[in-house]
Amino acid sequence: MIYEDSLFFDKGYAILINNESSPLYYFFDYDERDYSINMEFQHFHHFYEIFISLDEKASHIIEGDYYALEKYDMVLLRPALLHKSVYPARKPRKRLIINFSVPPNITGLEQSISTVLSVFDGKMPIYRFPPPIRTQLFSPLNDIFILGKQRRPQYELIIHSKFQEFLWLLSTHRRNNLYKPRQPIDSITHKIYVITSYIHTNYQTPLSLDIIAERFFISPYYLSHQFKKITGFTMIHYIQMTRVQNAQQLLLYTEMKVKDITEQCGFTSFSQFNRVFKKFCYFSPLEYRKKRQEMQQINQNQTIY
Questions:
Q1: Which of helix, strand or coil describes residue 24?
Q2: Could you give the angle at which helices 285-298 and 270-281 cross, rounded to 10 degrees?
Q3: Does residue 304 surpass a pLDDT of 50?
């Protein structure tokens, strides 16, 4: 176990309670990441996520905006918020990622749960606190770290209680946020990330290189070149990935018919949807839904590792 000033860390350590499709879900992931595994493009989750940087020099791109991070900065990501982690070259960077879902309709606690989760809805998704407040916030997280190691009877209940304490403290101290955004990336890179955010927001509508170039007042040739250079993908490939990713969410977490998902995700026909989906996922949409449901059923009894 490594003591990172005021936050415990153990590389490769993780705590899992239930799975991501459960109403109550926790995943505490302690690990290192480096430049070689930077995320390829902005994505989203159906659950909440907290990213805590345990090293200097990392960053996040959220809804097309760039945020430089310092040690112990917290990134708060509500469900369906587009984001991408960026790690610099050279040495790996330590971080703690917390994924979670909490039932919003616990009788008698609806208003309290809504209030503490509202901290994820602020305009600024990054939080930086002075050391005394940070110590308070990290205390229940360190308790969770130890509880996961000890695995005493009913430790899941205490972890849930400790994490709710953390969320309450975070909500209580939200006005003490010291984070100030800065914009170190060049203007064209920033514009490309704004365009990727636009694609994620408008994937249901007709999209093409010409349509987007006209909207953002860029020549199609220049946009095509810069988009591939910055994201690593052609515009068409990126649009298709975005539509498939949204289709995956609907296949997994709704009971919508495949025909309706085809229209919802901006595909012009079922045959196009089927062909593009297979290109990225190697299964048809129906096969994908069935196989993922079978995997979730197998993992249903897992609680921690």
A1: coil
A2: 50
A3: no
For each of the domains in the chain, give its residue range(s) and CATH number, in order of start. Answer: 2-176 (2.60.120.10), 187-295 (1.10.10.60)
- The DSSP string of 102-153 is --TT-TT-HHHHHHHHGGGGSS--EE---HHHHHHHHHHHHHHHHHHHH--T
Distance of CA 72 to the CA centre of its chain: 18
Q: Is the pTM of this model over 0.85?
A: no
For range 51-63, the mean pLDDT: 83
Q: SS3 helix, strand, coil % of the chain, rounded to 5?
A: 50, 20, 35
How far is CA 304 from each of CA 45, 142, 150, 176, 238, rounded to the nearest angstrom?
21, 17, 12, 34, 35
Give the span between the Cα atoms of 33 and 37, in whole angstroms.
7
Neighbours of 282 (CB within 10 A): 9
- Rounded to 5 degrees, φ, ψ at 304 are -160, 155
